[in-house]
Design brief:
Number of domains: 2
Strand order of the largest sheet: 9-16-15-11-12
Number of strands: 16
Distance between the termini: 111 Å
Largest sheet: 5 strands, mixed
CATH architecture of the largest domain: Sandwich
Helix content: 10-25%
Number of helices: 3
Strand content: 35-45%
Shape: elongated
CATH topology of the largest domain: Immunoglobulin-like
């Protein structure tokens, strides 16, 4: 009888041990949560400053390069950065220049379980769809190795060009003289002007008057002020008699042709008999 009791106790102990193994082992084999790794991203304009809130910032996405899975995404927010540090002060290549004075950035905390190759993409400026550009970099992130300071810098090439007048709500008269006003800014919305930090004398700025795909005239611009405002004059040729549309495209480019931007508006045309020069009156707004 004692032998039977001992045998029962041994079997019961074995069963309990087996149950504990079944319960405990999966917990011990649960996948780790990963190591918190902070990553700073900055999207900047070529030869310019950081894309900040004034231009809507930039959309940033971090993807696992191997799987395509999105690890983090969001919008870069903040200021354009410190003008003196970025544009005016000589510095070593290892110095931080974009991280001063709350310059715009996007920061993510990733939980990495292994060295991970990621593709980082930035797209902006978000407030200016015609000027929107995209840049990306492939970077190896190591668990626990934080990417701080300037962070991963993505450079966008382009210019913000805006036709300020004439506005598209007022038709143009065939034969009329038209004064065209436009502004040109860097991607960070920084002002382009003669003798400025971004010198318009080293850029090309002109307007194309287009009838469909055909360029029928050119507008030369001169800086008139206030800051960053350029102006040019053009007379709409009477040879356009019978046409009801005219497109104005304003193009700007830096000396190297790396930063290029444009804006264009298509205007309604009215015949010479209804034009301002012929009648002495302003042409009514569309719909008036």
């Amino acid at each position: 009888m004692n032998t039977m009791v001992k045998l029962s106790l041994i079997l019961a102990g074995a069963v309990v041990g087996l149950i504990l193994c079944v319960v405990v082992l999966p917990a011990a084999e649960a996948p780790p949560q990963g190591v918190a790794t902070e990553v700073v991203i900055r999207v900047v304009g070529n030869h310019a400053m950081v894309l900040g809130d004034t231009v809507g910032g930039a959309a940033v996405t971090i993807r696992d390069a191997a799987t395509g899975a999105v690890l983090a995404s969001g919008t870069q927010t903040g200021s354009t950065g410190d003008l003196r540090s970025i544009m005016q002060t000589p510095h070593e290549h290892i110095e931080q220049i974009y991280s001063m004075k709350g310059a715009a950035s996007f920061t993510a905390t990733l939980h990495l379980t292994k060295p991970t190759l990621v593709e980082v993409t930035g797209e902006g400026p978000l407030k200016f769809p015609r000027a929107k550009r995209r840049a990306s970099k492939t970077v190896l992130l190591y668990p626990g190795k934080h990417v701080t300071g300037d962070g991963i810098v993505l450079v966008l090439y382009g210019l913000l060009v805006r036709i300020e007048s004439p506005t598209p709500d007022r038709p143009l008269g065939i034969g009329d003289g038209v004064t065209v006003r436009a502004t040109v800014n860097m991607m960070c919305d920084c002002v382009v002007e003669p003798f400025g930090n971004w010198d318009s004398r080293k850029m090309e700025l002109y307007g194309e008057v287009r009838n469909g795909d055909t360029v029928i005239g050119r507008v030369e611009f001169f800086h008139q002020g206030p800051r960053g405002l350029f102006q040019g004059d053009y007379t709409i040729p009477r040879s356009l008699k019978g046409k009801d549309r005219l497109t104005l495209r304003v193009v700007a480019s830096d000396k190297e042709g790396m930063n290029v931007g444009y804006d264009e508006i298509t205007y309604h045309l009215v015949p010479w008999e209804q034009s301002r020069d012929a009648t002495g009156r302003e042409i009514p707004l569309i719909g008036k």
